[in-house]
Amino acid sequence: MKGNVILTGFMGTGKTSLGKMLATKLGRPFVDIDKKIEDEAHLSIPKIFERFGEEHFRELERVAVKELSERRGLVISTGGGTIKDAENLRLLKNSGVMICLTTEPEEIFNRTARRGERPVLDGGGDERLATIKKLLAERQKFYERADYTVDTTEWSPIQIVDDICRYLRQFRS
To answer: At what angle do helices 33-41 and 54-69 cross, to 10 degrees?
Structure first.
């Protein structure tokens, strides 16, 4: 497969950690879009949100997606909301195979418990789980556009990576 492998899904589903493992197994470079934005802006995502707002962050995200979608042979981890933007979704899907990682809302709640690192959830206060469920429902139609979906709730990281590799074998050329 010459195109990219794009991991998408809600925050806390394992896109970065599994993406690194998958890239190693496939012998490909790994790029985390959020990390790329942070490195280029010299600011953390929470600081970008705080200083410039979400729309500025989304513009930086669009620039990163455009650049990465023009390359081939990468494993790319998207931010949880990256594919809400129609052009981001189109560019990423055209650049390779999109895999959506999912997990149960309660598991996302547990995996994203540290405040200050998830600006979209940090405003949720005591309603954090309700916020997760609401955002999942809003984003579901975007996540359904993926070529393949893997639930990361119960499986080990190795099982998940192996499952994705089995799926990707059909695209060998």
So the answer is: 110
